[in-house]
């Protein structure tokens, strides 16, 4: 159970899209799981005369993220692909960026991550270890100070796990008539 200073969030960076939700205030975000390294330097022409895009500073590098990565660079795009992506630096960046965009600035986060079911047994512990090894430091374009937080609790679930709830619960969160059919061995 999270304390009052802990924010509760879930992030899924798989299948080409990063989808994140934070419990309080209840907000969500979704963007393509890509980034492009940029210099963040301008020509000094001012707003309206140069490209305007979202960016973030992470580990001393500045990145354009999501669709904005394609706006500034069609080559050198980092994509969240392959088995080694889970728990890696790019995965951690996408997670931190999503949470920052949802308003996380400091404190701690109780985080739920998802990974493919076939990789769950192999990736669960390494993902938890990677996320809890060190705190997060990120700043979004326009931030006056660095955002810093810790992941105090990290859970990893297989993708699709939450779908079971769609069959067991009705629209009000009560046990549905389908719940009895979900007893025993069920393949979804």
CATH class: Alpha Beta
How many domains in all? Answer: 1
Considering DSSP H and I runs of 4 or more, what fraction of the residues is helical? 10-25%
Mean pLDDT: 86
The fold-level CATH name is Nucleotidyltransferase, domain 5
**In order across it, which strands form the biggest sheet?**
3-2-1-8-10-9-5-6-4-7
Uncertain spans: none
Give the CA-CA distance, first to last residue: 29 Å
In total, the number of strands is 10
Structural class: alpha+beta
Cα Rg = 19 Å
How would you sum up this structure, described in words?
The protein is α+β, with helices and mostly antiparallel strands and 188 residues long. The chain has one domain (6-182): ATPase, nucleotide binding domain (Nucleotidyltransferase, domain 5), CATH 3.30.420.40. The protein is built from four helices and ten strands. The protein has a ten-stranded mixed sheet with strand order 3-2-1-8-10-9-5-6-4-7, sandwiched between helices. Strand 2 and strand 3 (27-32) form a beta hairpin. The radius of gyration is 19 Å and the shape is elongated.
Notable traits:
Nucleotidyltransferase, domain 5; 188 residues; elongated; alpha+beta; 10-stranded mixed beta sheet
In brief:
With 188 residues, the protein is α+β, with helices and mostly antiparallel strands.
